[in-house]
Design brief:
The chain is α/β, with parallel strands linked by helices. It has one domain: Alpha-Beta Barrel (TIM Barrel), CATH 3.20.20. Helix content is 45%, strand content 12%. The protein has 13 helices and eight strands. Strands 1-2-3-4-5-6-7-8 form an eight-stranded parallel β-barrel, surrounded by six helices. The chain is globular. The model has no long low-confidence stretch (mean pLDDT 97).
Length: 298
């Protein structure tokens, strides 16, 4: 499976009772696909995987998989701290039709590189579908070392890594170490999409594409056609949103931005709270910058 292009790290829509909002989920999916994304990535950091129960994760994934209906691949986050629980959830996601799984490194108690190799190999053996490693050291407390990724890339169904370290050196080294394997390196840092592609990454798993879908897609498409000036301009243009996202706890600002743009994805789950009125005004200014009309009912 060639993992490539702009894959949206989709938010999980909730209603006013903080329950999964099926209608808004379908609305967002269809907006993303019609805007040209190459895949949907659910239950990641911006998808609040850490806030959902296992039953909720399976129910949400089923809604997404059914609505996408094979139009693009669906990548499902099944990572956690317990290898046993990750295997159980991974099997369930495979059974309901996930195209691939994303597995974050265990967190809270930081495993050694040897332990994380055992963890990933055990998960990979339990399913037949592709697995993407997910490296996000600032959230998990550990960085997947190059030698670890090189070792895991030898496993038949470990086919890629999403690197959200924010370090180009990581991306570069992962690409170099796995060049002889059937393995894809993807940027998980939206500020580095173009630079990662230029180094040999095959795409990006981008949260900003929940809102600025066409802009993210244009970075990739213009890169493919060799129009680096246009790709660079699109990359730089993401910064206004990225600066605004820093005004609150993930994913509160992104969800409010999408909501104000017209898709009622609801708030983040508590303890993450809604942005205050001053921040909402800054979000509206950001939307105005991009020419996105603000839904005043939200």
């Amino acid at each position: 499976m060639k993992i490539k292009g702009i894959i949206t790290a989709m938010v999980t829509p909730f209603d006013e009772n903080q329950e999964i909002n099926s209608k808004a989920t379908k609305q967002l999916i269809n907006k993303l696909i019609s805007s040209g994304v190459d895949g949907i990535f659910i239950l990641g950091t911006n998808g609040e995987f850490h806030m959902l129960s296992e039953d909720e994760k399976v129910a949400f994934a089923k809604i997404v998989i059914d609505e996408v209906d094979k139009r693009v691949p669906v990548y499902v986050g099944t990572g956690g701290n317990s290898t046993c629980e990750v295997i159980a959830l991974s099997k369930k996601m495979e059974a309901i039709g996930a195209d691939a799984l994303s597995v974050i490194t265990p967190y809270f108690l930081v495993p050694t590189q040897e332990e994380v190799i055992i963890h990933y190999k055990s998960v990979a053996e339990s399913v037949k579908i592709p697995i993407i490693l997910y490296n996000i050291p600032k959230n998990t407390g550990m960085n997947l070392e190059v030698s670890t990724v090189a070792e895991l890339a030898k496993v038949k169904n470990i086919n890629g890594i999403k690197d959200s370290s924010g370090k180009l050196e990581n991306i570069k080294n992962y690409i170099e170490a796995t060049k002889d394997q059937d393995f894809c390196v993807l940027s998980g840092s939206d500020s580095l999409i173009l630079k990662s592609l230029q180094l040999g990454a095959t795409g990006a798993i981008a949260a900003t594409s929940n809102l600025l879908t066409e802009l993210d897609v244009s970075i990739y498409k213009n890169f493919l056609t060799g129009d680096m000036d246009t790709a660079e301009k699109a990359q730089k243009d993401l910064e206004v949103l990225r600066t605004t996202l820093k005004l609150g706890t993930v994913p509160s600002i992104l969800k409010k931005s999408v909501e104000l743009s017209g898709i009622p994805v609801g708030p983040a789950r508590l303890p993450v709270t809604e942005p205050n009125p001053e921040v909402v005004e800054k979000i509206k200014e950001m939307l105005n910058y991009y020419g996105i009309s603000c839904n005043s009912n939200q």
